[in-house]
Amino acid sequence: MEIKQYGSHSIGQLNFNIRDIKNVNEFYNDKSSDLFSFLKTQRGLNMKFIKSVCNCNLSNDTIKIIGGQGYTGGVGFFLKIYKDSISGKVSLSTTKKVYSKSKEEKKDLFDNINLLTDEIKLTITKPIEYKLNETIKGKIYLKTEPFYQKNIKGEIKKVVPSFDIIFTCKLNKITYNNI
C-alpha cells in the first residue's frame, strides 16, 4: 500500500471488503456506484478488497481517518481513533431515494444515509505516537447499525453491512472538524 505526497499533504490508501450481504442481486442498481454495485464488482472480479484513498488527520491526541469510494453514489468511512478506542460511521449514497432508518418510512426514502457502527475493532501494526507525518497502518472490522433499502421489486428490506478495512497513511495536520 502506498502513500502519495502532495506538497505538505499526503493521501493514504484505504482498501475495503464488503462482507457477504444476502440477496445482493435483489438490490443491484446498475446506474449507481452504491454498496451493492461495489459488492457485485468485488464478487465478479474475485477481489478481496476494493482499493480506495484516505486522509488521516491528527488533532492533539485524536486521529480522524476519512476514506471511501464513489462516483454517482458511494461508500464513505469516517473513523476516529482516540487513545485505544475507535468510533465511526459509514455514509452510503446512491442516485435514487432508496434508504431509510425504519421499515415504516417507505414514503420518506433518501438517496444517502449515515450509519453508526454497532461493532468496531481496530488492530494497529505498531503503537501510535500521535506525531505529524507519522505513518500508521492497521486493520478495522466494522458492522453498522441496521438500515432499510428499497429493492428492485419496490419492497423495503433490512440490511446490516459489515466491512473489513486495511489502511496505510501519514498523519496530516487537521484542517477541518467534521466527525
Structure description:
By secondary structure, this protein is mostly beta strands. It has one helix spanning 35-44; strands at residues 4-6, 9-18, 53-59, 62-70, 74-82, 85-93, 99-100, 112-124, 135-144, 147-150, 156-159, 162-173. Strands 1, 2, 3, 4, 5, 6, 8, 9 and 12 form a 9-stranded mixed sheet that branches. A 3-stranded antiparallel sheet has the order 7-10-11, with no helix packed on it. The protein is elongated and about 50 Å long. The chain starts with a strand and ends in a 6-residue tail after the last strand. The mean pLDDT is 83.
Short overview:
The protein has 179 residues and is mostly beta strands. The protein is built from one helix and twelve strands; from the N terminus they run E-E-H-E-E-E-E-E-E-E-E-E-E.
- Would you count the extended β strands for me? 12
Q: Based on Cα principal axes, name the global outline.
A: elongated
Regions with pLDDT < 50 over 5+ consecutive residues? none
Give the integer mean of the pLDDT values. Answer: 83
**How big a fraction of the residues is strand?**
over 45%
Helix and strand run: EEHEEEEEEEEEE
Structural class: mainly beta
What summary fits the major beta sheet? 9 strands, mixed
Straight-line N-to-C gap = 25 Å
Radius of gyration: 17 Å
Total count of helical runs of at least 4 residues: 1
Give helix % range: under 10%
Which short descriptors sum up this protein?
179 residues; mainly beta; three-stranded antiparallel beta sheet; 6% helix; elongated
